[in-house]
Design brief:
This protein is α/β, with parallel strands linked by helices. The chain has 13 helices and 14 strands. It is elongated and about 70 Å long.
């Protein structure tokens, strides 16, 4: 049965018109589904009974079946593992901070990018998620927070999968989440992360959104990035630099660079200086502070990668090198290690499936 959340408002309106229903019914249904947290059609009490029955026979409001839930020992991170109707399993995470509540959602089951340190990359790609399957994760987290009198403040497309490798469904999910008649989520509170799919970045830059873009960079020389992020062999750093420059010039929005800190691998002064040069090459020295931000993230260990998180002293030295070059950066606190909060880790733990390959490094 198709998820209602696969449909745009226009598509739903046309379906209802074909059923002989007035067009305004689509907005009523959307209000129930997106803003009032409805989980069944029967509860949409301002709709005729006959319409509620037909909707329930045609669509579903929930394709997610909860398999497992983990809560970190500090209570700030919560992870859910869901099964979809075909048995595919995906993950969503809630990260709570003093001033925000962030949902981290998946766009694919598994991932084909093969990043060496990522549990999702180690399992390979199973399939793309539909638009509705992406949106339902956001709504699940939103409803969970609402039940506790809290509100979802941010959404990051940083869970399982590469969002720009599932561009059509990712883009449609974004349009529906920010739609004024739908969830009405603020564009600037959404971030899409990519490992560097250059055609996708260029397409994303042309959308006219105010949605944030993050590039999972992790290395600033092609030799190292080829090993850590294999897609670099197709879209090397110079090509990625040009696409990133195009994004910044078109949107005038700040670009985030994500950098997982791996002890003795990419936390060296050589890499720090190479990152400074890559950013300067992308933006020019005069614009650095305004249009780029680097997140330094200590490695969240995975069974298929033998690396360790950089110690604080090396992270601090790396950070000082960036700030000396007037490049803003933030050292992120590792969250949810005790609940397998890294992408794909809970699925691997629950299923007992080993990574497709253990990466020697």
């Amino acid at each position: 049965m198709q998820s209602l959340f696969d449909l745009s408002l226009e598509e739903l309106t046309e379906i209802l018109a074909g059923w002989g229903e007035p067009r305004y019914r689509a907005r009523q249904i959307w209000a129930w589904a997106y803003r009032r947290g409805a989980t069944e059609f029967e509860g949409m009490t301002d709709l005729p009974k006959s319409l509620r029955v037909r909707l329930a026979q045609t669509f579903t409001l929930s394709t997610l079946r909860l398999i497992a839930e983990r809560v970190s020992s500090d209570g700030w991170t919560r992870k859910w593992l869901f099964a979809l109707p075909d048995g595919t399993q995906i993950e969503a995470v809630l990260m709570e901070y003093t001033d925000r509540r962030t949902a981290c959602v998946s766009t694919q089951a598994g991932c084909a990018m093969g990043c060496a340190f990522c549990a999702t990359g180690q399992m390979g790609l199973l399939r793309n998620l539909t638009t509705g399957e992406i949106i339902e994760q956001v709504l699940w987290v939103g409803r969970w927070l609402a039940s506790r009198g809290e509100r979802l403040t941010h959404v990051v497309f940083m869970g399982m999968g590469e969002p720009l490798a599932n561009y059509g469904n990712t883009a449609k999910a974004l349009r529906l989440l920010i739609h004024p008649d739908g969830f009405r989520f603020g564009q600037r509170r959404i971030t899409v992360s990519t490992v560097g799919i250059v055609p996708g970045i260029r397409r994303f830059a042309q959308e006219g959104w105010e949605v944030n873009l993050a590039i999972s960079l992790h290395a600033a020389t092609d030799d190292l990035r080829n090993r850590l992020v294999p897609i670099n062999r197709i879209y090397p750093l110079q090509m990625l630099m040009a696409a990133a420059r195009d994004y910044v010039e078109r949107t005038r929005r700040r670009l985030t660079c994500e950098w997982v800190m791996i002890h003795g691998v990419n936390d060296t002064m050589e890499q720090a200086n190479a990152l400074v040069e890559w950013i300067r090459g992308m933006l020019g020295t005069s614009a650095v502070g305004h249009l780029v931000h680097v997140n330094l993230i200590p490695l969240n260990p995975t069974p298929g990668f033998p690396g360790e998180a950089s110690p604080p002293a090396r992270i601090e030295a790396f950070r000082r090198t960036l700030e000396k070059a007037r490049i803003p950066c933030t050292v992120r606190v590792r969250r949810g290690i005790d609940v397998a909060a890294g992408c794909g880790q809970l699925r691997a733990e629950i299923t007992g499936r080993k990574p497709l390959l253990a990466v020697p490094f």
